[in-house]
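2024-03-11 09:14:02 INFO worker-7 job=invfold-0412 stage=load source=structure_tokens
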């Protein structure tokens, strides 16, 4: 069953998956796709052509402009903004109001299980890697690797996070150019090689 608050607007032609909830004053545009078991918070906006995977949380007042793609299990914090225009202008050089035909939308993609903190801005075109964490208030202007922890303006990598969301700690083992990292919550180990991280058991 889909639950849509009476004050929310889900336009004809939008798809909202089974078990999802759309809260007060949220707006899901025609052509948008929201997966199963998602939460779309109060005042959130999901643009036409935006795609949200299963079991995602889109928190209050987040702005998911098209053509953003958010993969399953991702968390989008309150008031996060995904941009979609490399050269924003309200009018053409001739002074006429721009329309959809006057620009090409570019999008942000968000990997599986990633988390984006409150009021972060993700500037298109960028990729937010799977299981990565973007700190609150960060401005992302370049791709974020899988499992990376980034913060600041512009966002820079501070370390690594595991799939449970905890910052990883060095495990002291290193061989063949690989570093080993440990999740303090789950005990899972991760292998870093050439700036990329993967689970040791993968």
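2024-03-11 09:14:09 INFO worker-7 stage=emit residues=202
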């Amino acid at each position: 069953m889909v639950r849509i608050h009476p004050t929310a607007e889900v336009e004809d032609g939008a798809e909202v998956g089974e078990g999802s909830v759309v809260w007060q004053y949220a707006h899901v545009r025609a052509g948008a796709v929201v997966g199963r078991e998602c939460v779309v918070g109060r005042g959130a906006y999901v643009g036409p052509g935006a795609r949200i995977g299963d079991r995602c949380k889109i928190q209050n007042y987040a702005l998911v402009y098209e053509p953003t793609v958010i993969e399953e299990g991702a968390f989008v914090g309150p008031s996060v903004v995904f941009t979609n225009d490399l050269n924003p202008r309200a009018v053409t050089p001739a002074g006429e109001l721009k329309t959809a035909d006057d620009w090409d939308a570019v999008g942000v993609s968000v990997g599986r299980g990633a988390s984006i903190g409150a009021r972060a801005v993700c500037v298109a075109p960028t990729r937010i890697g799977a299981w990565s964490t973007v700190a609150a208030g960060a401005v992302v202007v370049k791709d974020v690797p899988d499992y990376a922890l980034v913060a600041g303006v512009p966002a820079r990598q501070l370390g690594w996070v595991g799939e449970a969301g905890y910052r990883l700690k060095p495990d002291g083992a290193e061989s063949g150019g690989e570093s080993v990292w440990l999740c303090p919550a789950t005990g899972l180990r991760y292998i870093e090689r050439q700036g990329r991280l993967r689970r040791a058991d993968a």
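2024-03-11 09:14:09 INFO worker-7 stage=report msg="The longest strand covers residues 169-175."
2024-03-11 09:14:10 INFO worker-7 job finished
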